[in-house]
Amino acid sequence: MSILKIYPAEGTWVVRAGGSVIGESTRALELLQRDWPFVIYFPREDIAGAVLDASARKLECDDRGMGAFYHVSSPEGLIENAAYSITDPTEEAAQLKDYLAFDAGKVTVERV
């Protein structure tokens, strides 16, 4: 039984850091995982690469695979470990490779 469900996210989604839009996409994916809140994944090319700085923190998830965290630069300063990417996904999460997700407690992710 699958514990991950990945769908195309309907509409246009944006991510803001410190009030500044750092990404916008009509090609985002929505991940539903267990009983956790949904997560929006943005295609990497839809995010301003200049705002991302690699973090030493690594992502390890039994369900999604291995990945990396990124700090996000904003007008208010660096937001540590605010973004992450699945770089070595499980078979079930293969669609998420080359996408970025964001910690909704550190930045704003919303449908517009």
TrEMBL record:
Pfam families in UniProt: NTP_transf_9 (PF04248)
UniProt signal peptide: none
InterPro entries listed in its UniProt record: DUF427 (IPR007361), DUF427_sf (IPR038694)
Domain DUF427: 14-104
Protein name: DUF427 domain-containing protein
